[in-house]
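User: I'm writing a tutorial on reading structure tokens. Could you give me a worked example: one chain, its sequence, then its tokens, then a sentence or two explaining what the tokens reveal?
Assistant: Sure. Here is the example chain.
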Amino acid sequence: MIKKLLILLTLCSVNAIAAPVNINTADAKTIADSLNGVGLKKAEAIIDYRSKNGAFKTVDDLKQVSGIGDKIFEQIKADILLNDPSSPAPADSAQQPNTSQSIDKSETDAKSVKKKI
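And here are its predicted structure tokens:
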């Protein structure tokens, strides 16, 4: 019973250590070390696929890599990054207020108030 408990604790601690990895920038050793169930050979296949096809655009693209089947994919998909979390998100100009339009509107409102007075 104690032996089974130790094995279970070991498996749980391995999963807790796994850190998300950017498969578009990491080297094979980093990928192998970071993704449970992916050894150096599969990690090298990921690098080869990336070299031939360009950066992965979706996590599902990883299924196209030889040796990455549904079972392994389900194990590792939560730990896959396609860009670095510290990278700033692209600015969306549609969400940012246009301050010159706000100023123009304020001036127009002020003029209309003066006319009413």
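What the tokens reveal: The radius of gyration is 25 Å. Residues 60 and 77 are 8 Å apart (CA to CA).
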